[in-house]
Structure to design on (371 residues):
């Protein structure tokens, strides 16, 4: 091709290219508004957070912007500001913003941002751990303090733990330590719930539950038998010590009982019924007795309890606690007691083996007896 002709073709191509590149500007001048950078949304897709719309850039640049927030591409009622606070209705959904640009000529254009990730619940953070308020002693009541949180919770769930394991049924903000809590580590577990937040669970510092009172007096005792004993002596020894250690018993008066091989401050005797009167003429073959340093447990009663006790549906184990507590109470200096009023707990020093005169059968010293 001759050189002159080639120059004419190239010049024509340049003229066409220039015309195409100017097309958008020409379109805008002819009354359209077009985005040159899409709108975006700033902020975390988390409940309670604020999203902010960046309206993008437009041609022409001199435009007025309005906003419409969308939830899964559907308009959110009333959400027309530049910012949007994420609420409960947004959880699990994606949020975007649709921007309308209006030029001074009245021409308009629209563009929509990319959607956020799905809106998730916020984290509920504990600022101050829960506390257990009150004296951690048997016979007292403890109160839960739920601590402080990053957002004020709507409600709490409480659970009390003994040695790290949940205490069955203990889900109240108040808790009265049980006998089995004494000597164990007790914690409070709090789960907090707040709108739009994930539930959060924290535990208090552990407290060690102590007896009703500290030790005021330590006594020693030994165990022996009298007559033909068929009951298990190891089991007898074990339950006697359990009775003495129990927070509901004389330990609650501050008396600690320590077993020794022989001698001691007093002697607990498991005696064949027929031999009980050999300790004193005031003792009978039917019931247990205490004479001087001897706390005498009638083997027949140990094995069968008594008709009034059994008729009331009480357990043999509780009767054994009763008879040990009653006869040891005599050794401690307590005499027999009567029923204070119908329906009340019978004092442990009442002769419950024979009846209760309207009181309720009870194997442990009452608070009045513990002093």
């Amino acid at each position: 091709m001759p050189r002159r002709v080639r120059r004419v073709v190239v010049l024509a191509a340049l003229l066409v290219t220039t015309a195409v590149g100017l097309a958008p500007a020409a379109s805008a001048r002819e009354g359209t508004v077009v985005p040159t950078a899409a709108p975006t949304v700033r902020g975390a897709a988390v409940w309670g957070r604020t999203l902010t719309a960046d309206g993008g850039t437009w041609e022409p640049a001199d435009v007025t912007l309005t906003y419409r927030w969308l939830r899964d591409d559907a308009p959110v009622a009333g959400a027309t500001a530049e910012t949007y606070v994420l609420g409960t209705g947004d959880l699990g959904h994606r949020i975007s913003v649709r921007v309308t640009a209006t030029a001074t000529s009245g021409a308009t254009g629209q563009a929509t941002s990319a959607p956020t990730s799905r809106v998730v619940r916020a984290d509920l953070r504990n600022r101050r751990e829960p506390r257990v308020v009150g004296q951690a002693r048997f016979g007292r009541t403890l109160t839960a303090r739920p601590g402080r949180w990053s957002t004020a919770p709507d409600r709490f769930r409480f659970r009390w733990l003994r040695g790290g394991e949940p205490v069955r049924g203990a889900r109240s903000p108040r808790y009265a330590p049980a006998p089995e809590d004494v000597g164990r580590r007790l914690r409070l577990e709090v789960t907090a719930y707040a709108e739009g937040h994930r539930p959060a669970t924290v535990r208090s510092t552990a407290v060690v539950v102590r007896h009703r009172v500290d030790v005021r007096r330590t006594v020693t005792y030994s165990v022996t038998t009298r007559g033909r004993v068929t009951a298990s002596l190891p089991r007898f020894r074990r339950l006697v010590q359990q009775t003495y250690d129990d927070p509901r018993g004389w330990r609650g008066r501050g008396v600690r009982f320590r077993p020794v091989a022989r001698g001691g401050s007093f002697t607990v005797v498991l005696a064949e019924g027929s031999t009980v009167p050999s300790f004193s003429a005031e003792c009978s073959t039917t019931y247990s007795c205490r004479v001087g340093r001897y706390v005498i447990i009638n083997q027949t009663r140990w094995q069968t309890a008594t008709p009034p006790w059994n008729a009331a549906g009480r357990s043999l184990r509780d009767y054994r606690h009763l008879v040990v507590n009653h006869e040891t109470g005599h050794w401690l200096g307590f005499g027999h007691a009567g029923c204070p009023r119908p329906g009340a707990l019978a004092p442990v020093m009442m002769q419950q083996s024979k009846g209760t005169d309207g009181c309720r059968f009870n194997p442990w010293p009452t608070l009045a007896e513990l002093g």
Notes: Confidence is low (pLDDT under 50) at residues 1-29.
